[in-house]
Amino acid sequence: xxxxxxxxxxxxxxxxxxxxxxxxxxxxxxxxxxxxxxxxxxxxxxxxxxxxxxxxxxxxxxxxxxxxxxxxxxxxxxxxxxxxxxxxxxxxxxxxxxxxxxxxxxxxxxxxxxxxxxxxxxxxxxxxxxxxxxxxxxxxxxxxxxxxxxxxxxxxxxxxxxxxxxxxxxxxxxxxxxxxxxxxxxxxxxxxxxxxxxxxxxxxxxxxxxxxxxxxxxxxxxxxxxxxxxxxxxxxxxxxxxxxxxxxxxxxxxxxxxxxxxxxxxxxxxxxxxxxxxxxxxxxxxxxxxxxxxxxxxxxxxxxxxxxxxxxxxxxxxxxxxxxxx
Amino acid sequence: xxxxxxxxxxxxxxxxxxxxxxxxxxxxxxxxxxxxxxxxxxxxxxxxxxxxxxxxxxxxxxxxxxxxxxxxxxxxxxxxxxxxxxxxxxxxxxxxxxxxxxxxxxxxxxxxxxxxxxxxxxxxxxxxxxxxxxxxxxxxxxxxxxxxxxxxxxxxxxxxxxxxxxxxxxxxxxxxxxxxxxxxxxxxxxxxxxxxxxxxxxxxxxxxxxxx
Lengths: 326, 212
Prior knowledge:
The structure holds two protein chains of two kinds.
Chain A: E1 5-9, H1 12-21, E2 25-28, H2 34-39, E3 47-50, E4 59-62, E5 65-69, H3 74-79, H4 81-86, H5 88-96, H6 100-103, H7 108-112, H8 119-122, H9 164-170, E6 174-179, E7 182-187, E8 210-216, E9 224-230, E10 241-250, E11 253-262, E12 269-270, H10 272-278, H11 285-295, H12 308-324
Parallel strand pairs in A: 1-3, 2-3
Antiparallel strand pairs in A: 4-5, 5-8, 6-7, 6-8, 9-10, 10-11, 11-12
Chain B: H1 17-36, E1 48-52, E2 58-64, E3 67-73, H2 79-86, E4 105-108, E5 111-114, E6 127-129, H3 142-149, H4 159-172, H5 178-184, H6 195-207
Parallel strand pairs in B: 2-6
Antiparallel strand pairs in B: 2-3, 4-5, 4-6
Helix pairs in contact in B: 3-6, 4-6
């Protein structure tokens, strides 16, 4: 790992000041992804700003809005009674990701800032427009079994790696941000970006901005939820495809539905059109199949990842079946 | 076996050539580090709790296995490298060094983490337990006893991490069934494939009602 200077600010403002002053500085919270990238030489910040002493580690419920501080650990969120009661989908998604050791280190804000696990991004001898803009994409025409089927560009076909974020986009969460120009709120679906011509930018955070927390609005999705993760081994692997499914069912009718996918796009992939096909319908496998077909209409595959389309369809049907218990 | 499985099982308790070489390397690299490190330790700035510049060491206070340490480390030193290279606590293993294998699992304030993916300076003021701190004198921890009884290893390299993870798994309440144990132990890879015996060892300790 390259040398770097280290600062552990005692206040949020000092942390933002420290980052704003130095263009190569990075925040560090859990460090589980950043230190990995630094060891591989993918990133070489000259300064780390350790934010772990900031008072951003809490979970509260006020006026039916759930607030999670950015430094709350993934394991704490997954196990918290308020999360398990009000947003069990989030708890399931968190427990599907990483290992308990990593969940004991990784924070809520840091999870959102994870970089892709595309092997061409990690391998500094290969071209990668995300790591080195303009160098090309090793995955297009390369080994792209793990790569995107939605929303990719001719610059980048990498996928977003988080499970937590798939549940949060389904639950219409909001990202709370503080920065040199003050505080702002970003709808979760607008936080991460598609690659387009700027795949080096994973998200819409501005210079010097710090994630301080997230909010999840009250939702009816407390009973009929399921997070399905399909991967190369039974646990502790990134998703080939994952599905967050949430249904509000009464009198055998779907009142509301949420569907989002992981492992298929450069950002958490919300399936709005597929959700619409479910509302007002009965929770049957036939209706779930229609939703799955609609969900994958815009899919585009590459040499090694065409299997992801039927896998996505089957995963959507299975996740909805598990959520609805039919 | 109050410590980790010996790294040279054919020669237990005796320092062999390789260990002597390792000690020499540790001593000589410590001398080299002294020679090249500026003596300056920077004080905290007005608005910052702690700060260290490029090439500067900073003070770190840790409690490791019940013993207080006042250390001086470079910011880029991971907790794993601090334990192994500076403190000779080589029971904690370096497997992948990227958080993928679990060999470096230690407890920080009672929670299991991967020591390879955290900086030592980030652990300021924390209490750390390594495999060396698990036994009470000559009395092995119940999970250590169970690993021996059930043959929960072959080569033994992953074993310190497996045992630290297993103790935490039981304390967390995640050892209720073989399926739950497998899921919550999935961060510890055993390339010899001793998984069935590891699950049996954890199950026995959990069902035995031992205080872990």
